[in-house]
């Protein structure tokens, strides 16, 4: 069995744990990041937003309603209010007491231990968020080339370009939501003028798309894999990394 698994991922495709290993622990919590490292994922992905008092925090939705025992918008709550919430119980009682992490504590804890793919979520709600993220990376000395990859990505390509112009030493990726038209040549050329990664919905990926991205000297990390069959199809198409809730599915 081991030989077959090794052959499937012979090109060392990166395993990227989506919101941490979110199939096994509450998304975007230290428990999920710990699980990602335990499972030997190469990177974990996090979503970042900003508290009312300007701290970068790790949470997917623009409200705390779905993933904590609180309610309200992230941007209307102070760091202290956000930190008082339970971000684990909704997933399973054993995770009670998990907190919404700050970007700073994630960088402190995982610097040198795991790659981190940072998604800037809803940047239009948080003017200046790109500069703050850049400052945090510099404070943690993560703006220089590093063994463990640090990548910044967003669906908002203006935000990606803003971040890139502030801190060009940190590679950036463009996220692409599913669309039937695919990615035009014009878009591909534009992305390649600043981005190192094009990260589309897995539904858009075939060998042709992978080749076009490689021809533009970029790499591709599709999302979000939740079954072994799609993991295998992406490996066959030749992707460079796979963003998944289940790091053990990338074999
Ligand atoms: O990393 C890409 C993926 O996370 C994008 O979708 O909604 O899970 O942030 P979402
Ligand atoms: Ca995300």
Automatic annotation (TrEMBL):
Domain called GP-PDE: residue spans: 13-251
GO terms, biological process: lipid metabolic process
Gene3D superfamilies: Phosphatidylinositol (PI) phosphodiesterase (3.20.20.190)
InterPro entries for the chain: GP_PDE_dom, PLC-like_Pdiesterase_TIM-brl
GO terms assigned for molecular function: phosphoric diester hydrolase activity
Top-level taxon of origin: Bacteria
Protein name: Glycerophosphodiester phosphodiesterase
